[in-house]
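Predict fold of Protein phosphatase 2C; 430 aa.
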Amino acid sequence: MQRPIALRPLASSRQQTSQSHGPQIQSLQPPRAKSPIKQVKPIYKASAVQIPPKPIRRSEPAQRSDNESKPESKPEHLSAMEPQPSFDPGPLTFGCTSILGRRNQNEDAHLTFETHEIQCACVFDGHGGPEVSTYCVQRFPFLLKAALSEIGTSIRDALKYAISELDKCILQNWAFYEIGCTATIFIMEKLSERVHIANIGDSKTVLGFYNRVFSTLDHKPTRQSEVNRLKKIPKSFISEQNGISRLNGNLSLTRSLGDAYMRQFGIIADPEFYEFAISSNEAESKVNISNIESDQQLYQILSQQTQQLKYCILACDGLFDIFTPEAVDDMVRSMLSNKVINLNQTPEWFLKTALLLFHDEFDSALQLIKKQRAGNQMAQVNLQQMQQHPKIVAKIESHEPTKRIGEVLTLYAYLSGCTDNITVIVGIIQ
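Predicted 3D structure, encoded as tokens:
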């Protein structure tokens, strides 16, 4: 199935109202003709909508004293928060990378943890602030473990329960009234070798199978099934601003955790579930992808057959607003094989650049990009910034393959013009 070229236009989950500082950054695509700014026009329903007021505060929160220090950073992993019992490790090795990028604060949060039965990885991409994504990292593992151990339900039902309870807790906290986050959650069952994914919003999980790639579907105002759902909500409308479709002129997604003020307009926290049977058999699955017309149809076919999993990638839209899942797949396979592997018709120079970054040949990678992007003036600005301060926002320094691959992906996305936070989790089958 033919796929678009590697680079995508930039997008942001929440409408930015303040002007950014420094040079303006754009994606590395052929320049488009400029058009005058237009007023927001509803696509299918116009309605004068006002954001409802915040809930009445029943009590004021405790004020932080002047001599009480504010935490400087949030924990990346549950394992850093509490001692974990010993058990046999699962088949996946995870590496996590998160960078601030060109934002003032990092609103992303990520998490990996393991029990006797499962391995789990999560990426939560916050908007409106980092509070909800941070809360999810702190609370979700306990809700999931409780569902699995105390309720004794299936993985899918446990995920559904944990996400529902997590969302309820967020909605009950008035401090989170105008804050939310997306979520992509990956679980590998150790014994049955089954993979489960729950996705909310526009973060993605990408699975690299033996001979093809699969990615979760985004919940955006451009997805027809979401448009059909929103049409049934009286106060809801979809508008386009600067080429980006937004729900009621605000969020560029249609599902999220939190965002209480947007619930009346159609935002929901219902996850979309995916499940695959995994095997160590390297035999190629017999799927004729030439006749597949949609990603949903591809999932229905792949989920009916046992697949050999090579790796998994969980990332926020900071990565996938720049690269397609197919381009990420080719980059990861190339770095794992230490040679250009092109299953998805990604330009060869693009993959060679990833390999140069993977081997810490930064100057050579810059020269290759300059050669390919000679006519893009804004791309040259990006390159000059990175050449002057290559180690400030992103580093490639880990010797662990999983983390190093994540570092390459985040740096390459930043170098390609990403203006968002970028968080990537890479999992490789041992």
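The first strand starts at residue 92 and ends at 99.
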